[in-house]
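Notes from hallway chat w/ T.B., transcribed later so I don't forget. T.B. wanted the structure written out for a chain they're using in a teaching module, and asked if we could keep both sequence and structure tokens in one place. Agreed to drop them here.
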Amino acid sequence: MQFCLTALLALSLLAPTGASAATIERLETTHAANRYTLSFDVVLDAERNRVWHIMTDYDRLTRVSDVIVKSAILNTTDQNRQRVGVTLRACVLIFCKTMKKVVDIQARPQDDIVVIGVPALSDFSYSVEHWRVSAVDGKTRLRYDAEMVPDFFIPPIIGPWLVRHFLEGEIKATAIKVEELARHE
């Protein structure tokens, strides 16, 4: 469940509002020894440069996902490297969890974003996320790969199932929100 939220920093980029052409083409999750991996491809009905701008507006990530309750740039090394703090709150069934995550983000314009968690400042002992953003026939393809180890308990029997179920809905909701934002920016 909480892993879902980190993915939401990731997915933090992807809350429903109106019609959408967003298509989840692939979603894979695995779990072994408290390590979660997540990969997905989603195609957004939005122009790539606008999507890139929304995804790299780290101070305003709350507008793309209801799970992200706070985001802020903590430090900027240069135009493409920032340290970002994010507070996430997710509920799955009756379980709710608030998580904090500090990440170092390196954006390689306009197609690559690497997000590395800072374990000493996060609720994850390990976190590496990679976004690839590409234009496809006037739309935008987002490819996401992540590997994370939460520093909190997730029930092993239901955890992986909840992660997948939660993420599938959240990816779609966030994709719809990003499409909507892209139309108006």
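Follow-up for T.B.: The helical segments are 2-10, 48-55, 159-184. Might be a good example for the class.
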